[in-house]
Design goal:
mainly alpha; single chain; globular
Length: 376
């Protein structure tokens, strides 16, 4: 009887995961479709909003902070690019900003140790190590991208190769075959109901945002309840292994739970209690950065070549960042040293930790966006 209940529970969770993935991909498809209903005016305004790369960067940070998930932000960006509402060029800074914004979750988790001085120092260093890696990567790659378009061009070449391979074999994604009829049915049903393309487009736009956020939220919740405890035990056993293996574990864990925030957040208490050192946690964090790009790549399955291109930009950004920072030990130590230094200041004046989180993730992005709007 116990085994039967276990099988039933497993089957129920599997069905739930598949259903939520269907809702997620359906929402991405509808997000791309809705811009055809909204017309050119909406697309032009959206492009104007993100035409300044610096504004795009800070919009990416702030939007990710607000939804507490880079997966949601990057999936929406893929949908916008696939639907033609956003160019790949304008979307690249948004992707970079999303990578910075997602690090706020582990920083907030570290505040749970704020009443215990030694634990808090380690926890805050472990959390902000992720911040500094992403900040340094953006500081290096953002100006390079502005000058050369390196990431966009490389991703465009790769996506062209992949689409060319697909076309030459006359292959159509089975996911598109399942998703497109459902999206078409919903779109036409709502059009019949409202009789107004723009009103239908607005309704679908907000419906898709709810669908993307809700599906990823519950998907992460189910996977977290099923896998995180097992993953924690596994990590405890292998944290002292090679950096590359630890990085691979970070990728696998994040792909499994569909959230880099979960991977980095459950490391924080392990670092706080001394189970995991910063040096061993660092490659796990980098692996989580790569693993989280799978969500955008999944979203690109129902998009077009432009959607795939921006999803590959997300992957390349993290991979190139690792190749620049991780191989050389002295460079690898920079994010860790910055995090340790910041944590020493925060532990002496704990209100500084709150100020740091607010200023970096909310005040600076919001102030820059508002000032840029005012200047126009």
């Amino acid at each position: 009887m116990k085994m039967l209940n276990s099988w039933a529970n497993g089957a129920s969770k599997l069905f739930s995961v598949l259903f939520l993935l269907f809702i997620f991909l359906l929402a991405i498809q509808l997000l791309g479709d809705c811009f055809h209903l909204l017309g050119n005016d909406f697309s032009v305004e959206l492009v104007k909003t993100t035409s300044d790369p610096f504004v795009g960067l800070f919009v990416g940070i702030l939007s990710t902070v607000l939804v507490q998930s880079s997966s949601v932000t990057t999936s929406v960006i893929v949908g916008l690019v696939s639907g033609g509402a956003l160019s790949v060029h304008n979307a690249v800074p948004l992707i970079m900003g999303a990578n910075i914004g997602t690090t706020i979750t582990s920083a907030l988790v570290s505040l749970g140790h704020i009443s215990r001085q030694k634990e808090f120092e380690k926890a805050f260093a472990g959390a902000t190590m992720h911040d500094f890696f992403n900040l340094i990567t953006v500081l290096i790659l953002f100006p390079i991208e502005l000058m050369t378009g390196f990431l966009a061009k490389t991703a465009s070449y790769l996506s062209g190769f992949l689409y060319g391979f697909e076309t030459s074999h006359q292959f159509e994604s089975p996911i598109k075959i399942i998703i497109k009829p459902a999206a078409k049915f919903i779109k036409h049903s709502l059009l019949d109901l409202t009789g107004d393309p723009k009103l239908t487009g607005i309704f679908i736009f907000f419906l898709t945002l709810v669908g993307i956020f809700a599906s990823l939220f519950f998907l992460v919740k189910i996977l977290k309840s099923t896998l995180v405890q097992k993953i924690k035990i596994f990590v405890d056993r292998v944290f002292s292994s090679s950096g590359m293996l630890t990085m691979l574990i970070g990728i696998i864990i994040t792909v499994m739970v569909q959230s880099s925030s979960i991977t980095t957040s459950f490391m924080v208490p392990l670092i706080a209690t001394g189970i995991l050192s910063l040096e061993h946690a660092f490659p796990l964090t980098l692996g989580a950065n790569v693993g989280t790009t799978v969500t955008a790549l999944m979203a690109a399955l129902v998009g077009n070549i432009a959607g795939l291109t921006i999803a590959l930009v997300h992957l390349l950004f993290n991979v190139v960042g690792i190749l620049i920072i991780y191989p050389i030990p002295k460079i690898r130590r920079i994010p860790i040293w910055c995090a340790i230094t910041l944590a020493k200041v925060a532990v002496q004046r704990r209100v500084f930790a709150l100020v740091y989180i607010f200023v970096v993730f909310v005040f600076i992005p919001l102030a820059f966006i508002l000032v840029s709007r005012f200047m126009k």
